[in-house]
Automatic annotation (TrEMBL):
GO terms for molecular function: oxidoreductase activity. Its cofactor is FAD. This is NADPH:adrenodoxin oxidoreductase, mitochondrial. The gene is Fdxr. Pathway: Steroid metabolism; cholesterol metabolism. GO terms for cellular component: mitochondrion. Belongs to the ferredoxin--NADP reductase type 1 family. It catalyses: 2 reduced [adrenodoxin] + NADP(+) + H(+) = 2 oxidized [adrenodoxin] + NADPH. It is found in: Mitochondrion. InterPro entries: FAD/NAD-bd_sf, Ferredox_Rdtase. It comes from the Eukaryota.
Length: 357
């Protein structure tokens, strides 16, 4: 709500204008924008998803979490997705906030979903869903999950769904939890509490369930006998090398098969290059920058995921945008931005767009 209020306040300002249905890099180049404005900030996010790079990921029944989220949120590009929800077990590959959101939507009671702004077509599809079990699978352990305590708590308290966490997954974490930063400590303690405590009577009798599977790395999406659909995922069991956030998952040589009829890949988003004139690091998926200043391009700035990579929550992105805005103001005061001559702004851009139809 705070985000909505802040955005509304900004959008109502006489100094703020919005122009949609314009593809920068195609309809108008970044160079043309720079000629029309004294400063240009690129904040176009991460519009693509990372791929698994394993056999079978293109089988029917396998979707990216990005596309699935876009489907139930009503994004035009995903409105025709039509995910097959006819199976009982779904596998979500990933342990981030998006993975938990996807699981929550799959298992939420319809009465709860009706109170949200989910699209009518998605609600109708979920009303016919047979999914009653969702496993969230991650390569590393409980101390490396990327979701936050707010999202985990919402999932634990989801009506009609029972959390299934194995106490053995948390054995021996006492010292590591004790020395962990407070947010990580609270998050891990909540997982341990959920794994150990006896569920309430109504929770124990819940028709739906979800759980976290740790130290399992996807190796192949397994096909049905006719080779057309997903029937499960073969995973490699892993051990952790190192500790904390930098711990690496190393295969042990053991594998297991997890049965499911629906696979949702939630292993991260990635930004794409926007314009040949804008530097881009394909390995990191970001625009090379220093505090938001695009390297080698005075007057050009970036913010958000395209600046630092697809991590963090709303407050992270807010602070990141403040950092970029500060850089613009500093350059303005230092004379880096030449404001002695006026620029035409959208008048020039509008003329370019009209000339190109």
């Amino acid at each position: 709500q705070n985000v909505i209020n802040t955005f509304t306040q900004t959008a109502r300002s006489d100094r703020c204008s919005y122009y949609g249905n314009v593809a920068v890099g195609k309809d108008v180049t970044v160079g043309e924008l720079q000629q029309a404005y004294h400063a240009v900030v690129l904040s176009y996010g991460a519009e693509d998803n990372r791929v698994l790079g394993i056999p079978g990921e293109n089988l029917a029944g396998v979707y990216s979490a990005r596309a699935f989220v876009g489907w139930y949120n009503g994004l035009p590009e995903n409105q025709h997705l039509k995910p097959d929800l006819s199976c009982e077990t779904a596998l979500v590959l990933g342990h981030g906030n998006v993975a938990l959101d996807v699981a929550r939507i799959l298992l939420s009671p319809l009465d709860l979903l009706r109170k949200t702004d989910i699209t009518a077509s998605s609600l109708a599809a979920l009303a016919c869903s047979k999914v009653k079990r969702v496993w969230l699978v991650g390569r590393r352990g409980p101390l490396q999950v990327a979701f936050t305590i707010k999202e985990l708590r919402e999932m634990i308290n989801l009506p009609g769904a029972r959390p299934v966490l194995d106490p053995a997954d948390f054995t021996g974490l006492g010292d590591a939890v004790k020395d962990a930063p407070r947010p990580r400590k609270r998050l891990t303690e909540l997982m341990i509490k959920t794994a150990l405590e006896k569920p309430r009577e109504e929770t124990a009798a819940a028709a739906r369930e979800w759980g976290l599977r740790f130290q399992r790395s996807p190796q192949e999406v397994l096909p049905t006998a006719d080779g057309t659909r997903a029937r499960g995922v073969r995973v490699a069991l892993t051990r952790l090398q190192g500790s904390g956030d930098s711990a690496q998952a190393v295969p042990t040589g053991e594998v297991e098969e997890l049965e499911c009829g629906l696979v949702l890949s939630s292993i991260g988003y990635r930004s794409l290059p926007l314009d040949p004139a804008v530097p881009f690091d394909p390995q990191l998926g970001v625009i090379p920058n220093s505090s938001g200043r695009v390297r080698g391009a005075p007057g050009l700035y970036c913010s958000g995921w395209v600046k630092r990579g697809p991590t963090g929550v709303i407050i992270t992105t807010m602070n990141d945008s403040f950092d970029t805005a500060q850089a613009v103001l500093e350059d303005l005061q230092a004379g880096v931005l030449d404001v002695a001559t006026s620029r035409e702004g959208f008048g020039a851009v509008g003329s370019i767009l009209r000339s190109r139809g």
